[in-house]
Amino acid sequence: MRRSTAAVVVVTLAAGGTAGAVAPRTGLAEAAVAPRVSQLDCSGALTYESRPADLTDADGTLFFTAYDTSLDPTMWSTDGTRAGTFWLNDLSGEERRYTSYSTLEAVGSTMFFTADGFDRSGALSGTDLWRSDGTKEGTAVVKHYTGIGEMADVEGSLLFVARDRSGHVALRRTDGTKAGTSMVKDFGAHPAHGPDHLTTVGDRLYFSFDDGVHGRELWTSDGTEAGTVMVQDIAPGGPGSYPVHLTEVGDEIFFWADDGVHGLEPWASDGTETGTHLVRDIGTGDFGSSTYSQVAVGDTLYFSAVGDDDALVDLWRSDGTPEGTTVIKQMGSRPDYDEERFDLATAGGLVFFGPNDADHGREVWRTDGTAEGTVLVKDIGADPYGSDPQAFTAVGDEVYFVAAGRLWRSDGTGAGTVPVPGLPTMTAHRPYDLTASGDKIYFGFDDGVHGSEVWVSDGTAPGTHLVRDVNRRVDWDVSSKPRPNPRSTAALFAASFDSPGRLAVRPALAGGVRRSSRTIDGAAPIDTTLRLALTKRAKRKLLRTGQVTIGARFTFHSCTGVVSGYERAYTLKAR
Known about the structure:
The chain has 575 residues and is mainly beta. The two termini are 30 Å apart. Helices cover 2% and strands 50% of the residues.
């Protein structure tokens, strides 16, 4: 339970539904004048976290996965308002129970996603491909497969990798209907891993794949079987060149590959064998260079990489030619420390990144592609280690990021780099999974009250708020060690509630307690002592033998709207 300083109160449960004899105290409302649960102040209720993940934009609608009150994974959509946040149905049906959702890919305003689960016998049932327009009515299953891999939007159609019941891995395409789902190319049953690193450039798809003959190499597809081919055997006669970091740059694909001679180095391709070439041998020798982040601005690729001059991570740019691939600035970050490898993001024609330099520590920088235009934006951190900026995400001409534990926004100037107002600062949790949707930034955040939930911001205090408390379940507990009151007429229980609400008690199991109910009110967390009146028989046995077994069912109606309960048996011993 979420613990903090709280008033300790005694709650006398009114037996038989009548008003108790004990006068109201702080945090306690008498049954005779008890407000309805819906009338209680629920603003401070400490709810479970929904742990939102997979935040993905589809033409201004945000989709995400979360654990709701049932504690099962669910799929949601939102426009940034509570009223516009929807649970997309109970997708589990009579045949399957889904345990996870993943691989979200937007095609226009339609979101495709996968759902894994078990059949009703408990056996693994494979993966279903779903589509949604953000409404319950517009959410439906497309087709079932043994497994589904990566997906990509190519010219308004979804291309995806799937394995069928025969074990064959194939590249497939769909328009969102079962009838409109077809195979592009069957790669056979042998691949241990299907195509990956799916990346779209114009009307073509690029990916890395091992056909069992050439090793893992760069492939391309125009959406037809005949047009799905290997681009070039970059490392002939071996396990392949293992293309990674596929990035669209203008009308070409940039990637890193190892041809067996130069090591892992940047390459570029226009989709043809003759138009595929090594860009530059950055790290001489067969070890090659290492890159950690890439971003395209028009026809130029910006990337961080280690050359062989000083073994430090530097900022580079490339137009796809050897002479046009140069170091913009030597940043001095060391590649052997993960925290010193900086990410890149572009907004307003600038590239933002967070390197670690000797003078300021890890801080926010930006570049316009020139050495003179590569400058520190703002020294946020007060110590020599810096503010550790991460998760750069563009929204319009600005970039949002997390630094010093807070959410920031920047237009590339020092004066225009400010913390986003409206978020609680007295929390140990940082915003995460920053995702742009429309003109807003969405992110997961734990404000210390609602647990980890989806928040939204337009950069202003009024526009920064919790979208919806998806998981409204609350913690509450009644002690397993009751004690009798001095007259042995009641059992006293320590109890804790993370929300105001109404508690009902009914005899169960061994019985021995009277029916009762009570309103729990006050600022959460509420530490209380419950007083349950004993029946005459239970009182007599307690006085005669010194102990009695009692049992009760506790049902708590939280002000968040969630009802939960349990039964317990207790041994009550006389003092």
